[in-house]
Amino acid sequence: MELTISQLAERIGAELIDEVGAGDLVIRAARPIEAAGANDVTFLTNDKHKASLGSSGAGAVIVGGRLDGCERPQLVVENVDSALIEALNLFAPELTPVVAGIDSSAQVADGVSIGEGVSIGPGVVVAKGVEVGEKSIIGSGCKIGENSTIGANCRLDSNVVIYHNCRLGNHVIVQANSTIGSTGFGYSFIEGSHRLIPHNGGVVIEDFVDIGANCCIDRAKFGDTVVGAGTKIDNLVQVGHNVVIGKCCLIASLVGVSGSCKLGDGVVLGGQVGLADNIELGSGVMVAAKSGVINDIEAGQKVAWTPAIERREAYRIINSVMRLPELAKELKKLGKRMNDLEAAEDGKN
């Protein structure tokens, strides 16, 4: 899409400040400050990037308040992030639109309930007892197991697998190659071998959940594994059996949540965080990247390190650890001085 700066300001609800008379300049993309050119709009979310704006080639800038001395059109908005999302949507690549209907190569069992406007792509397999809500998109190669439910306005990208007896709410996105409802990792050592414990439960994904690519969410032994409404999960995340994740949580890439953990609402897990089994994180807990959590954490706490402890205490310990080489050198010097003093004392005697 191409829009003039004036048109773009109108579309994103911005106040246009144009002291250079460039309102008719055509904008074709939104880009970061350092990469933007004359036909791009850029954005400023905090003051630390303000100095870079002077050398930027951007045709216009989205800002949260008027900038003095800015020699380019300014699109002043209340929330820069919200306006940037709007701009990125406007300038998104124009792809072939999805067409409603069932591809001829798809295998759909008799009696499957399919809502209006649903698109089922090539090579899809839909088992008996499945329900698919209106306007949902099932990408190529997906497989949906018996008696599972897909809500309205969902999108399953290519090669997603939904096992049997799983329930997805409305407006759920599952990116390519993710698996929902696989058997959990639960074994008992009996008579000299590990025997798999049956997992007869299901998975419930509530409304407006986004799940990244190559994620695995295991089914429960009993009841359901649950992902709460509005939660966003990055790529390559493992969620174990009987886990309950609250609403509006953020879970970054490479996180592993062991079986039967409970996360409150608004929990944030940084990249590569690992949670031991059967622990509970209260609402609003934030866990720094690469932390290992082995105990329950009360609501609102911010933790880091392995094992995860209160963030400021963790940083003090880490700073001390980083100083160990320097302290070792000082200790070596002190040892030499002690030896020299002892030798001198022995010489007097």
Explain the overall architecture:
With 349 residues, the protein is an alpha/beta fold. It folds into two domains: 3-90, MurE/MurF, N-terminal domain (Udp-n-acetylmuramoylalanyl-d-glutamate--2,6- Diaminopimelate Ligase, Chain: A, domain 1, 3-Layer(aba) Sandwich); 102-312, UDP N-Acetylglucosamine Acyltransferase, domain 1, CATH 2.160.10. Helix content is 17%, strand content 28%. The protein is built from five helices and 40 strands. The strands form six sheets. A twelve-stranded mixed β-sheet has the order 8-11-14-17-20-25-28-31-34-37-39-40, covered by helices on one side. A ten-stranded parallel β-sheet has the order 9-12-15-18-21-26-29-32-35-38, with no helix packed on it. Strands 10-13-16-19-24-27-30-33-36 form a nine-stranded parallel β-sheet, with no helix packed on it. A hairpin with a 2-residue loop joins strand 22 and strand 23. The longest helix has 25 residues, at 324-348. It is flat and about 105 Å long. The protein starts with a strand and ends with a helix. The model has no long low-confidence stretch (mean pLDDT 95).
